[in-house]
Amino acid sequence: QVQLVESGGALVQTGDSLRLSCLVSGRTSSIHRMGWFRQAPGKEREFVGTLRLIDGMTTYADSVKGRFTISGDNGKNTVYLQMNSLKPEDTAVYFCAAGVSWSTGVFAGEYMYWGQGTQVSVSS
Length: 124
Known about the structure:
Distance between the termini: 40 Å
Largest sheet: 7 strands, mixed
Oligomer: single chain
Low-confidence stretches: none
Order of helices and strands: EEEEEEEEEEE
Shape: globular
C-alpha cells in the first residue's frame, strides 16, 4: 500500500505563486510515476502533470505548460508542484497520484493511489 498526503493549498491572487507538496509513504519502491490532477466545482478531474521517476521526465497539460513544474525529493519522499503565474481558472482541488504501471501518466485511470486533495483558490 501507498499513502499520499497533499499540502500547501491556499487562497492567492492572480499572478501569485504557490507550491504544493505530496508526501509519499508505504511501498514506495513499487511506484513508477507520480501525477498531479485537479478538479474544479462542477467539472471532471483533469490532468495537470506527471513525473516519471526512473528518469525524471515530465509531461504537462497545455493549460499549465510553462507555468507549473513538477519535481521530486527522494530523501524526503516528497513530490512538489510549483505553480507560477496563477490564474482564476487554476482554482480547483489538486490531487496527487501514484502509479505502478509503465504508462503515459495522463489519464486518471493509470494511477492506483490518490491523496485526499488540497484546495487552491485564485482570486482575480
